[in-house]
Amino acid sequence: MRKILFNRDEPEAHEIRKRQDFDLVIKKYQERKDYWKNPWFYGSIGLASLISSLFLMSL
Amino acid sequence: MSSPSLYHQSDTRIQSELRIIEKSKKNPNHFAPLYKQYHENIFRYIMKRVDDVEAAYDITSNVFVKALTNIHKYEFRGVPFSSWLFRIAKSELYQSFRDKKARRTVSIDKVIIADLFEDFEESFNEERKEKLMEALRLINEKDLALIELRYFERRSYREIGEIISVTENNAKVKTFRALQRLKKVYNK
């Protein structure tokens, strides 16, 4: 169920500016990039595909 | 409070943005000026649609992470960079609803709601406000999204079209139909 808020208080522009954190964005971006580059990620996909193929072949 | 408009930009500004984008494709640290420029607008767009301020900050941060991750795919084809960011914001927002990290919320203020009642050819009062809030709970998500963009955030049809990936004219038609459906639910 949607919540409807009437005349809601929103943070002021200076409060929003204070919460800007570009370093965190770069950190998260790097983590995401490293995750896709991680050989374990592709290794686990490969292993899962191999197990699925063997299972299907055994049917 | 309404967010500062960044939609209508001069050619010089668009060109300067494009240079930053090209540099960011090679080095993500160059993206900082665009982050600073659009952070508030994206935050306010998200804030109006979730009930928790901290969740809104988190989702905003994720929008920029996703933008950086996909910046290599961005090509200027007449659609401003801000509209591309709003598309990502929309997608991150719905992902957070699916993951139950945020609750779908509709934020409306008295001045804007009075304008909507003018379109309904009715005057604003407490009873009608409750009736409208109920109608906003019941309409489908696509209609609600259009009503929010046009009536609660006062965006142009051109910008709405760019955010929802349709032409300006199509955005106008879709918004008109959404309003008709809202009126129908309201009058039930």
Tell me what you see in this structure:
- The complex is a heterodimer of chains A (59) and B (188).
- Chain A has 59 residues and is mostly helical.
- Chain A is built from three helices and one strand; from the N terminus they run βααα.
- The model of chain B has no long low-confidence stretch (mean pLDDT 91).
- Chain B is globular.
- Helix content of chain B is 69%, strand content 2%.
- Chain B has helices at residues 11-26, 32-47, 53-69, 81-98, 110-119, 126-138, 141-152, 157-164, 168-187, and one strand at residues 105-108.
- Chain B has 188 residues and is mostly helical.
- In chain B, helix 3 packs across helix 4 (81-98), helix 6 (126-138) crosses helix 9 (168-187) and helix 8 (157-164) crosses helix 9.
- The A-B interface holds A 1-8, 10-13, 16-17, 19-22, 24-26, 28-29, 32-33 and B 1, 4, 28-29, 31-32, 35-36, 39-40, 43-44, 47, 51, 53, 57, 61-62, 64-65, 68-69, 103-110, 113, 129, 133, 136-137, 144.
- Strand 1 (3-6) of chain A pairs parallel with strand 1 of chain B.
